[in-house]
Amino acid sequence: MEQRDIIKGQGAQRNVVNRFERYTFDPEEEDLDIVKTSFTEVFPKTIVNKVKSEDLPMEYSMNPYQGCEHGCSYCFARPTHEYWGYSAGVDFERKIMVKKNAPELLEQFFRKRGYQPAPILMSGNTDCYQPAERQFEITRKLLKVCLDYRHPVHVLTKNALVLRDIDILKPMAEQNLVSVSLSIPTMNEELRRTMEPRTSSAANKLKAVALLAENGIPVNVMVAPIIPGLNSDEPLTILKAISEAGAQNFGYTLVRLNDSVEPVFIKWIESAFPDRAQKVLNLIRSMRGGKLGEKKYFDRQKGEGNIAAMIHNTFKIGRKKFFEGKEFPKLSTAGFTGAKDQQLRLFD
Fold it and tell me: What gap in Å lies between CA 340 and CA 113, rounded to an integer?
């Protein structure tokens, strides 16, 4: 793998112009070889978001951090950083906003009169177990609130740090209140270090799958995203490995590069894989009607053309071969203790 002028430990190789800024800097003028991560405390009024996307199964999501240190160039959440006045490029990975008041906000949400509980996805946008979580422990505190209120939550992460909280996850799982999804897009460690430079290694994520399963915590694996020409030859290898480790289900997505994700990804792949960059980009275009992105509900999940069809068929084969007979449990809302039970909860 020939690499050219790639900044190690980062997915974005530059900042890109914020599409909402009328007057902005020229990203090419920045020296981004060494950029330290900074953390800024923000004070949102709510922490739970209503999911409005028609093709997504969850009703609510919450994100204790804005921005993500993991450094995946293809991350669909990058454009959200622009609403804060930052760039979707290096800023997204190095200017992290921290929501320390998230646990208090979650309690307020649970106490709302008339609230009907439904599972919440933790990490609907940015990773709740990114490296910042070691320092701030906001995700851990949120899980404690969910356990205290008997409220179900799905956790999605690329980081084996989730194992730190197994002391909370295990009693939650015993009450059918939690599931964990680990993202494993590749088993090739050299590729993993380039694709998602600050995530856990593929081996450590696979160990996390096994340890979670051993402790009775339902595990799903997201094989995502599939990037043709990079990891599109790996699905069956990954599905076999995660099934043997104890995963009960899996999901996958086809890469899509919407808005400011596109220039970030193009710069990354031209730096990391100059010998095959154009081939990969053309393969993505073949799945996206000649474009690199797709925003239409349902269409964005399916893609089009022969390459997309081949990927879908491969996963169908993998499900039949490695996951036939496996069932993923549905989380329970039956034990939720909300506003009406506040006094009774004192005696739990």
Answer: 8
**Distance between CA atoms of 94 and 7, rounded to whole angstroms?**
13
Q: How far is CA 202 from CA 89, 137, 188, 199, 273, in A?
A: 24, 23, 7, 9, 20
- Closest by Cα among 116, 51, 142, 141 to 336: 116
Written as six digits, the tokens of 214 are 């051993």
Helices 166-174 & 138-148 angle (0-180, nearest 10): 20
Instruction: With beta carbons less than 8 A apart as the criterion, state whether 37 and 12 touch.
Output: no
Residue 292 and residue 181: Cα distance in Å, rounded?
26
Report the length, in residues, of the chain. 348
Please indicate, yes or no, whether the overall pTM of this predicted structure exceeds 0.70. yes
Tokens representing residue 218 in the block: 């339902």
Four-residue CA torsion sign, 148, 178, 51, 62 = positive
Tokens of 159: 């980081």
Alpha helices in the chain (DSSP H): 90-94, 102-110, 132-136, 138-148, 166-174, 189-195, 202-214, 235-245, 261-272, 277-287, 299-302, 305-322, 342-345
165-203 pLDDT, tens digit per residue, is 999 999 999 999 999 999 999 999 999 999 999 999 999
Smallest CA-to-CA distance from 144 within 110, 182, 96 is with 110
Residue 85's pLDDT is what? 86
Count the alpha carbons within 13 Å of 73 in the hemisphere toward its beta carbon. Answer: 29
| Cα–Cα dist 109/313, whole Å | 42
